[in-house]
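User: Show me a protein chain along with its predicted structure.
Assistant: Here is one chain, sequence first, then C-alpha cells.
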Amino acid sequence: MRGKHVLCDRPKISIVIPAYNAENSLERCLNSVFSQDYDSYEVLLVNDGSTDRTSEIARQYSFKNNFTLINQKNAGVARARWAGIAASRGEYIGFLDSDDEFMPQMISSLLCQMEKDKTKIGLCNAVMAGDNGEKIQFKYKNAILDNEDAINKIIIEENDGHLWNKIIHRDLITYEIIAKTFDVICQEDLLLVLYILTAKKEPVTTISKPYYKYYIRSGSASRSNTMKSVVDYLIVHKKVRHRLMQLGDSKLNRKIPYFMLVHEYLPVWVQLETTSLKKDRHSKKIKKAIIGAIKQISVYEFFLSGAGLKVIIKYLLIKKGLFASMFKIKYKIKSIFS
C-alpha cells in the first residue's frame, strides 16, 4: 500500500538501476520508482562513471532513507548491476534502466502475484514509447508457466531477453552467473535471463498488464552499429542456442531452427545489409556465413520448429538462394515510399 517509506531491517525488494550519462531521463526514472504503491523496497542507483550530471541529480534523492547511490569507474552495465546487487538487502531483485520507468503498480502487482503463485520469477508486459507513439510489447497472459514452457515463451517466442520487466528472487542471481556477462556489450541480459531460468528450473509467473515503460532510444549499446556489437550478438545467441540444446528437452530442441533463423541470424544479416556496417570489410564474410548456416537446416527440421507462414517463406527463399535479391527489392521499394 502507499505510505511513507520506512527503512526496515530487510526490504522485500531491491531495485537496481545502472546509470551512465543519464542526466536527461534520470529524474523521471527515479520519480517513477518512488511513486510505487508499495512500501518495503530500496533503490540502488549505480553511477557507472558518468561524465554528465547523473551523480548530481542522484544526490538530490539522498534524503530518502531507502535510496543508495553507488559511484564507480565506468565498467559496463553488467558490472554495474552486480555492484547494486552486492550492496542490496532485498529478498527479491528488480531492475530498471535509467531512461525508462515503472508504472505505480509494478512492484506490488508482480510481488503479490508471485507470492500467491509461490514462484521466484515474475514478469509483465511492457509499453514501448517512441516517436511513433506507444505500443504494447510482448504477449504475456496471466499464467504460471512451468520451466520448460517459460523458456519457450520468454526466450524463443517472445525473444524477451530483458531484466527490466522481471522480478527475481536473489537466490537465483549469483556472481558466477552474472560474471559470465561482464565482457559482453550486446544482449548480455539475454544470456543472463537464460542462465537464471535454467539455474534451478523454477516456474515463472507472467502478468498481462504492461507495468514497465521502455523508451526507444538510438545510440544505446544494444543498437550501436559496430562490428563488436555484431560479433557479441552472434556469440551470445550461439551460447543461448547451445544452452537450449544442453537442456535435452525435445520440445525446446525442435524450436532451435526457428530460434536460429528469427533471433540469431536474420537480425544480424539485416543490420549488415542496411546500415553503415555494409561497407565493413568483414560484413560480406559474415553474411555469407549466416546464409550458409541457415541452408544447413533441413526442411524437415525447420517445419518441425512450428514456424509461421512468413518465417517459412523466408527460410525457403534462403534455401533457394533468392532471399538476398528479394530483400534488396523490398528494401528499395520501402525506401522510395518512406
